[in-house]
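Reopening closed ticket. The problem is back. First fold of the pair:
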Amino acid sequence: MEMLIDFPGGAKVDAHFGPYTVKTDQPPMGGGEGSAPTPFALFLASLGTCAGIYVLGFCRQRGLPTDGIRIIQRMHNDPGTGLIGKVEMEIQVPPSFPEKYLPSLVRSAELCAVKKHFENPPEFDIFTRAVEGVA
């Protein structure tokens, strides 16, 4: 997979891949317009939405309704590093949701591919190259 990252102006940075463009911006206090989520907010949202797609798939496979199901994701900072030290996901279900499926619902969310990449991070190779014809 390849993504093209460009800079459309101001503090905006966009990612283009396939038919999609993901737009990011910084808040006004960070020099941006606040017109889109920050890259870090999108990163965090990818955790919750990834878990969500596994929860959705679990329910669909069993014919369980997803009305009223939601995930509340909370980030807890590590005061020593200033980084996020813990991510908590609370899967809220309506009272009518079958209790026997609750542990399996948690296990399905834990299968999230984004979470797995956290647990086994990729190697990064960042470099520069001058390219003719790039304006």
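Second fold of the pair, where the issue appears:
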Amino acid sequence: MRRGLLARVAVTDVPDNDSELTGRRRLPMGHQVMLGLGGLLAVFAVAMLVAIFLVIGLRQGETRLNDHEVPYASAVADAALNAKGIANDQRGFLLTGDPTFVDEADRRADAARLSFAAAERAAINDGQRQAVGAAQAGFERWIGAVHEEFAAFRAGDHERAIAASAGPDRELRKTYEQALAGAQTLGDSSVRSGSSAVAAASLRSVWILAVGLLVVLVVGAAIAAWLIRSVAGPLFRLVDLLAADLPL
């Protein structure tokens, strides 16, 4: 009985018909298992690398949006808000002569300069930097004219101060407001573009990861089927032979 069993086991160790016809030798079982596991690990590693690159790209887009585009738009908006407040302080002083309006205008002017500087630091291209520079230059010209109005009003020349505010100084204000509006338009456009790019990159990453996961599952299933056919099949046949040779 033992000799018959050994003979049958030997038969199972012989390559199948396809291997005999082609003259190829079957890999040892241990090598087949290692090859299958190595394939699974390779597929998993590729999927992980793809995910890492996608996350890095998405993070770069978010960093640019949060560190440059949003701060630029916010700084320009703050500068515009402070400049509008100065115009109100200008009218308040020329109507009442209250010096607190002058102090408030000076405070707002300093805050506006800080906002202009922040916008220039956050600018991501020459167009934004030039727009901020033009707006700040126009703002400084207008602020200089406003201070001349304040000085003339304090000196008692109220009519000249009021006439200047309603004439040439008003034109200076319109000029810088137009430049500031252009800088705001660039900032808003940049934020919208950056937000759209981040959203598109996020959606693209989800699709790529989903497709990558599907590929990993398909390849993993194929490798598992190959391992079952190459490794488990001969083991099952061996079990069947052992069971057939056992006495009832």
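Update: turned out to be a display glitch only; the data is intact. The two ends are 13 Å apart (CA to CA). The chain has one domain: 30-245. Please close again.
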